[in-house]
Specification:
two-stranded antiparallel ribbon; 16 helices; homodimer; Farnesyl Diphosphate Synthase; 1% strand; mainly alpha
Chain lengths: 349, 349
């Protein structure tokens, strides 16, 4: 089977398990209010997404042990955690859109609190509670998946560690505008903590350890970290140069949120003083015009910053695959992982 | 040994484990920002508190199995969860104080964001992230405590379920002002979900199940639920009639937060139309004067509502102890649990 077909098969299995979990969960809730919120978490989670994280978890397991339906059931924990993170992230960044639709707290506001006194605060409070509920579901699916006590323990311990590291990354991210210096190194560390851990390295290692026969965890981790940082840098490129209709958010939103991406840091570093000041002003503006946005993109290109990012993505990907080649696991699965690491830096959304 | 001494001994063990955990945790963090926040979570958790929850967890275990240091280590998970809940609760309720000191997000604001643009939002965002970190610590202590895989699994599964039910209670609480009718029954259910589960019933059953030899879980649950509801109703009495210096928050704060306690519901139900309207106005005011506050307390007393609450607390406590007497566990520990259930409705703070 071609890697693409194998991955599509895994994705279908994962979608099925996600639907089953949420069907059972929402079906078991008596209280109307609680059920409504659980249904919104379900819809938000099922809204789409590439399911890269649970796919990597299952592949991590299947590197060292035969495919196991119970591990697929357990793998959705890391996909539900995505809802936990994204709901909170959008509240903190005040992002109005996610995956081409209103972000969770905005949907809550529109549905329940539109025009109410303190409506915005109430919607954000319910958003945080809903994200916490999603977090509790992440743990529950592990215990209900049918994996052994030992596997569940390892899985849950990895999961908690992923949540801690990602939370630490969030801290750094929120504090970063208050740091005097925020350099490339700080940004790469942020990508390692806030993205690579819960997107690639964490799921992969969590799955591998759940096989109870894993080898070369270090190499797998290096692969995951490098591919994860590449994922984020490529994501930032998509966020600025992708197609509005495909990326699921406003093409200006990264800039309007003041996101200090590698594209921005390098463009500031390598352009004239006035262009550098223009970039900083755009990142502080919160609402750039079309002309400003186009000038910004032009500076990012002409300063060589875009090339720097895309070259780095390629280099990280190559280096990641070198580490992968050293892993003593199922060669078929290694081929698929290699395909996935290419996919995440070629995708359109 | 007298129950009081036994409980004091457990409390000392728990304080020791809490300190050790946070010492190891903060000591292991390299990044300055992350360490600062972890230290604030440590200080917040160590600031005081009755440690009723981990004490109940250990007693639940010791009902059926010999005292085990590893279970004490694991028990602090439920105390750390208190920080997770309180930090978020104070943000959602906009409470300025907790345990006689600034609440967590207010401390963050004063320390890092005072006068900054969007400082309040930033402090609240960091507060939510810090609460999430505390939540990840809750799970971690279970895995690091030295209990068996099976015990850790049971513990973690109970913990996730406690978090879900408490979150559902929070949802009901935030939505309740938007409900047409909010009656005594709704309030009792709220107390069961938002308080009893994570304060009494949950820790007790979690500990009992971690003994792997538990019996009469139903009776234990009834005991925990009844004692937990009594705890909350008594807490609301303390919140209105306690001593300002002892309860760790402004004596007016429950009223100013518009908390619809049993005291308020029953006073509205059993007083004249004008008094009832006065109470509702106070709960909506957000800032009652001393005179208004005293008139409010007077109505609660003269309407018989205070007596209703204190009688109900006694009745719930008696009924709880009847269920406890049916549990086939260590008689010494049963005596201590009975003492604890008396203590939580006689305490001063």
């Amino acid at each position: 089977m071609e890697p693409q077909e194998h991955v599509a098969g895994l994705k279908a299995e994962i979608e099925h398990e996600l639907s089953s979990f949420f069907e059972a969960k929402t079906g078991s809730i008596q209280d109307g209010t609680v059920r409504t919120i659980a249904e919104l978490v379900r819809d938000y989670t099922l809204r789409g997404g590439k399911r890269i994280r649970p796919i990597l978890l299952v592949l991590g397991h299947d590197l060292f042990e035969g495919h196991d339906e119970n591990v697929v059931k357990a793998s959705i924990s890391i996909e539900i955690s995505q809802s936990y993170f994204l709901i909170q992230d959008d509240i903190m960044d005040q992002s109005p859109m996610r995956r081409g639709m209103p972000s969770f707290h905005v949907e809550l506001y529109d549905k329940f609190f539109s025009g109410e006194k303190d409506g915005k605060r109430l919607a954000e409070s319910i958003g945080v509670i809903a994200s916490d509920l999603a977090e509790s579901y992440c743990h529950q699916v592990l215990f209900e998946s049918g994996i052994s006590d030992k596997q569940a323990n390892i899985g849950d311990s990895e999961l908690s560690s992923i949540f801690e590291v990602t939370g630490n990354g969030q801290l750094i991210d929120v504090f970063s505008p208050f740091q005097k210096e925020f350099k490339t190194n700080d940004l790469i560390r942020l990508h390692l903590w806030k993205t690579a851990r819960y997107t690639v390295q964490g799921p992969l290692v969590m799955g591998a350890r759940m096989s109870l026969r894993e080898k070369n965890l270090d190499q797998l981790s290096y692969f995951g970290n490098l591919a994860g940082v590449a994922f984020q840098i490529y994501d930032d490129v998509l966020g600025l140069f992708g197609e509005q209709g495909e990326i699921g958010k406003s093409i200006k939103s990264d800039v309007n949120e003041g996101k200090r991406t590698l594209l921005m840091l390098k463009a500031i570093e390598n352009s004239s003083e006035s262009d550098a000041r223009f970039i900083s002003d755009c990142l502080r503006s919160g609402n750039v015009s079309d002309d400003e946005f186009n000038r910004l993109k032009h500076i990012v290109e002409s300063s060589g910053s875009l090339d720097y990012s895309t070259n780095l993505v390629e280099k990280l990907n190559r280096r990641a695959k070198e580490y992968l080649s050293e892993v003593d696991g199922n060669p078929e699965i290694k081929k698929i992982l290699s395909w996935v690491s290419d996919f995440i830096i070629r995708r359109k959304n």
